[in-house]
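Sample log: Transcriptional regulator.
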Amino acid sequence: MPRVVFLLLPRLHLLDLAGPAQVFSTAADLGYGYELSYVGEREDVPTAQGLPIRAQVTWPELDTGDLVVVPGWRGPTFHDSPRLDPDSSRRLAEHHAAGGTVASVCAGADALGRAGLLDGRRCTTHHGLQDELARRYPRATVVRNVLFVVDDRVVTSAGIASGIDLALHLVAVRHGPGAAARIAREMVVYTRRNGDERQAGALRYRSHLSDVVHRVQDLIDSRFTEPLPLGGLATASGVSPRTLTRIFGEATGMTPLRYQQTLRVERAEHLIGRGASVESAARAVGFQDARMLRRLRARTNVPSAGSSGGGPAGSASSTYDA
């Protein structure tokens, strides 16, 4: 039974703790076999919201399959961070060195940094703390404006509610995206937001429970600027092109091409909103020129699953590139 240990430091944010704790608790209720523990450097831990929490001061025995999570705390800067006992830093470092996974939510990244776990790794934190994290740990690479970052079993997330996304991601890695979708549905939250916030707009198409479709969406999400032939997506998902088109449409209401185009348009809108020209935004997201982007932006509604946006979207020879 995998164990999830939350290291509770003074002034922690309740949702930084409660979000991921609810994910793993719900996973346990659904039979995925998690055991949760809450440890602190003292028994009574004050929270930022005024509700005290009782923690155990003795760490449980940890295995390589276990997870340690450090929720964040209130403080305008890391200089206001609570003191971290050397024994806690040592336990974080030793668990990772032994092959375990260590995660943080929001300001909890500072605890990982003090344990030496951010050196030479990519990481993130709340957008208001990113500059300071980069100055405090110059050997780390701070990835800005994303929900979470995974680097060599060190998982860091942005502020507050993003801890839910982090936890659902870890469940999906261990048990498959269908399990994460089942837990998210039970919690009435988005099935799973991707680490890169640029794709947040496409989340409405993630409320299904199909492992195959989630995996194809993961592939498209990570490579949406590239040509993605339907046959290649089908091969990667272990089904035929015809089957993939059918189940993808049943799960999302659109074709894989339409889904990729949606990601491209949303990313282009993000770039245009930050001052990019339509032409440069179009090329940045994978269009050969701005004509297709202008056509897609001009549509007021998402086209139906049968709409190809310029090609036979459902055919085996289709290439997911406009």
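Observation: The chain has two domains: 3-173, 202-322.
Observation: The mean pLDDT is 87.
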